[in-house]
Design goal:
Layout (H helix, E strand, L loop, with lengths): L1 E4 L2 E8 L5 E6 L13 H6 L2 E6 L18 H15 L4 E6 L1 H12 L4 E7 L4 H10 L1 H6 L2 H6 L3 H16 L6 H8 L5 H11 L2 H5 L8 E6 L7 H6 L8 E6 L6 H4 L1 H12 L2
Parallel strand pairs: 3-4, 3-5, 5-6, 6-7, 7-8
Antiparallel strand pairs: 1-2, 2-4
Helix pairs in contact: 2-3, 7-8
Length: 271
């Protein structure tokens, strides 16, 4: 369905029992709503109704111009506006990668809208900011950010039929090709990369304490997000908190370990 919110048009994919407890699914880069396809059936079987949102830069009708339009508070406001348009007062939230950043901010600033939060791959932003400031190894892991923010990034990523994007997503197998193909839509990759270009350290350090029940699902083999930030995330949550560490799983948890993630979400939502 198409949802009009904040002067933009967002694509939202709703499925599951119409009267089920609602779950908002927030994707990351370079994916879209499809990254939750492997966990959604189990959520539906358990009685949950899912709403997978293609966020700004990914929904064709929600690609504003300018880097500033892709700051995290803008994406958080999108999520709230979409919930309002759907008539949903509060939801369980599951966010992966950039979607996890949005989820952390939403849980911190709009806790009344969040019944529970499951963050996938990305720790609490303040824990991440601390790890980046103290650990050279964690800063080295984020070296790719400079390239993603560069003006030539689109050209590099789309070269050779999106070979770089497909290589990034190699752990998820054939599904990678679909995401790489979608990024060839005019303007889509620029919108997606503007999330990186708009990020500042202040946005990470400024996210407050979390007061809703929270689970952090982290792949121990994630090449970017390390153990220090994972362990520090619990200090940023003043509510029931669980860390689910998945051995031999990398960054793309929803598609590398969909059963384990679905288990974590179902445990957190209490259905």
């Amino acid at each position: 369905m198409e949802i009009e919110a904040r002067g933009l048009t967002f694509d939202v994919y709703a499925d599951g029992p119409p009267d089920g407890e609602p779950v908002l699914l927030l994707h990351g880069f370079p994916q879209d709503h499809r990254e939750f396809e492997l966990i959604a059936p189990r959520l539906h079987e358990a009685g949950l109704r899912t709403y997978a949102l293609d966020q700004r830069g990914y929904s064709p009708g929600a690609c504003p111009d300018g880097v500033a339009a892709y700051r995290l508070p803008e994406a958080c406001a999108d999520a709230v506006a979409v919930l309002d348009a759907l008539g949903l007062d509060s939801v369980h939230v599951v966010g992966h990668d950039w979607g996890a950043h949005v989820g952390w901010l939403l849980a911190a600033e709009q806790p009344q809208r969040v019944r529970s939060y499951t963050s996938v791959s990305v720790p609490h932003p303040r824990a991440l900011a601390t790890a980046l400031s103290r650990e050279p190894r964690q800063r080295l892991r984020f070296a790719y950010m400079g390239m993603f923010r560069a003006r030539f990034a689109e050209r590099l990523m789309l070269a050779r039929d999106g070979a770089m994007l497909r290589s990034m997503l190699k752990p998820i197998g054939p599904r990678a090709a679909g995401y790489a193909a979608a990024m060839r839509t005019p303007g889509r990759l620029t919108g997606a990369l503007n999330w990186y270009r708009a990020l500042t350290k202040g946005q990470l350090a400024g996210v407050g304490q979390i007061t809703v029940p929270t689970t952090y699902v982290w792949g121990e083999a994630d090449p970017v997000l390390g153990r220090t930030a994972a362990l520090a995330t619990g200090d940023c949550v003043d509510a029931d908190y669980r860390l689910v560490a998945l051995h031999d799983v990398g960054h793309w948890v929803p598609e590398e370990a969909p059963r384990a993630l679905a288990d974590a979400v179902l445990e957190r939502t209490g259905v």
